[in-house]
Amino acid sequence: MTLTRRTLLTSLAAASGAVLLTSCASLLGPRDVDLPLSKLQASLDRRFPMDNRVLELFDVRLTRPQLAVHPGDRVSLTVDATVAQSFLRQPLAGTLAFSGRLTIDQARSGVFIAEPRIERFAINGLDQAMQRQLTRAANDLMDKVVLDIPVYSFRTDELNYAGVQYVPTRIATTGTGLRVSLEPAQPRSAQLQNSR
Description:
- The chain is of the alpha+beta class.
- It has a domain at 38-149: Super Roll (Bactericidal permeability-increasing protein, domain 1), CATH 3.15.10.40.
- Helix content is 31%, strand content 43%.
- The strands form two sheets. A six-stranded antiparallel β-sheet has the order 2-3-4-5-6-7.
- The longest helix is centred in the first third of the chain and has 26 residues, at 3-28.
- The protein is elongated.
- The two termini are 39 Å apart.
């Protein structure tokens, strides 16, 4: 068999494989995956405790995250907060609670909290002026905690079904957790055509 003919047959086989995968993906179509709250909670538990420095004065340790889902694709997260500083005889304890809208980051294959909003930041034993100052600084803390930590990260095998690669596209809260819509990933050639 000549080199040209072998190259032609290899190209045809590759093209046939791509067409077959595309047709399989179109036959399988979109699918929904339910993520129970217990699975989301376990994912968050692995990422805590977290230590952060606030206002270059306070060392804040966040522990025991508690996730709750709400109608309208919103979630809230409450964590225990311990504040330590050299002028404090012993660390002070309290809670930090915030809420936000769910969003999907396809590049990181994860579900994240967007547009976070502080609902409560209370540290027992701090005077009101210091409490207000610490609450204002908590916005910077939220950027580190909320925007970089996924509520859930998909494993590669969770996005592969019957040999077809899927991507998360939509998300909704349910009474027991989250429902994520997955759609077959477009072949690279189709992505390049769509970007033109």
